[in-house]
Every structure is written in structure tokens, then in C-alpha cells.
Write a structure and sequence with these properties.
- Keywords: Membrane, Transmembrane, Transmembrane helix.
- The protein is an all-alpha fold and 179 residues long.
- The chain has one domain.
- The chain is built from six helices and no strands.
- Helix 3 runs antiparallel to helix 4 and helix 5 runs antiparallel to helix 6.
- The model has no long low-confidence stretch (mean pLDDT 89).
Length: 179
């Protein structure tokens, strides 16, 4: 696919989760979040369009669907931030979608790959995403209402998704045996 397309996500995924945690902690302004969402919209749509013919087969087509659905919910979240400064339900939906969508694709990746031992990283990525989702949701719920717990959930999500995307980048770059 090309060096930037192969390795770029390995840097962008952890950066996105660090940024999300900073936003939950109130370390960035609503305007900064809006700008980041617009940048993410542009990157997602560009990546989707430029890889459409390249992302085929059972694994990459699952990730192409993640990009498609993710781009739609991200744009809706961006529009929500424009209409409702600080965000409303669509902005929250975008965040939850970016936790759940990759989890489903990591599970699909693990299922389809049968050979290499490192394929289990994808299963761990899916599991950590879902565990992080539960922790994040509990931290943000009225029951706990604990920002530290919510951020811990995002850290778990970020760890799992970063492990998966770094593994994919190494695999795509030929640094991991594909057998």
C-alpha cells in the first residue's frame, strides 16, 4: 500500500487515544477537540478513498468497513461538536464507535489468520478494546462518575489497539513472518 499508509496508523492510533484521554481530563479545549476531529475526518476519508482498491480479502475488507463506518460516525461527531460545543450524543457515539469497531475487526483478523503465533495479538487487541470500553463506560457512568476510571479505560483501549496496529504495520512491512 505504501510506506505512509502501512506505518502511519501505527503512530496515529496511540496518538488518538492519548488525545482522547487528554480531552476527558479537560487538558484540551473543545475547540482543539473540534479541530482534531476535522483533521481525523480528512485523514479517514482520504485513507478510505486511496486504499479502496487495495484493501480486499477477508481481513483488509473488514478494516475497510471500519474506515467507512468510522468515517461516518466521526463526521457525525464533528457536526455534533459544531452544533453542541463540548459535544452531545453523536460525539459520544463517535468515541464509543472507535472503541468497538476496531475490536470487531481485530477479532475478524484473528479468526481469519491461521498460521502465525503473533496473530493472537489481534485477539488481545479486541479483548482489551472491549475491556477498556467497559471500564471507560463505568468511569463515565453516574454510578462511578470517576474521570480517572474513564481515562484508565481509554488507556486499556489504546494499549490493545496500539498492539494490534503495530503488529499489522510490522506484518505489512514484511518484518513478521506471514506463515
Amino acid at each position: 500500500m505504501g510506506l505512509l499508509k502501512d506505518v502511519g496508523p501505527a503512530g496515529l492510533v496511540p496518538a488518538a487515544w492519548i488525545f482522547a484521554a487528554a480531552a476527558v481530563l479537560g487538558l484540551v479545549t473543545a475547540r482543539t477537540v473540534l479541530i482534531a476531529m476535522v483533521v481525523m475526518d480528512v485523514l479517514l476519508v482520504t485513507f478510505f478513498v486511496t486504499t479502496l482498491s487495495e484493501m480486499t480479502g477477508p481481513v483488509l475488507s473488514a478494516w475497510q468497513r471500519v474506515l467507512a463506518v468510522g468515517a461516518v460516525v466521526n463526521v457525525l461527531g464533528t457536526l455534533d461538536l459544531i452544533v453542541t460545543p463540548g459535544g452531545g450524543s453523536l460525539a459520544a457515539l463517535a468515541l464509543y464507535a472507535w472503541i468497538a469497531l476496531p475490536a470487531a475487526a481485530y477479532a475478524r483478523t484473528w479468526t481469519v489468520m491461521s498460521g502465525p503465533t503473533y496473530r493472537h495479538v489481534y485477539l488481545v487487541g479486541a479483548a482489551l478494546s472491549l475491556l477498556g470500553l467497559a471500564v471507560f463506560a463505568a468511569g463515565g457512568a453516574a454510578l462511578l462518575d470517576d474521570v480517572a476510571v474513564a481515562v484508565a479505560g481509554l488507556a486499556v483501549v489504546g494499549l490493545g489497539q496500539t498492539a494490534g496496529i503495530v503488529t499489522a504495520a510490522l506484518q505489512n512491512g514484511g518484518r513478521l513472518d506471514r506463515s
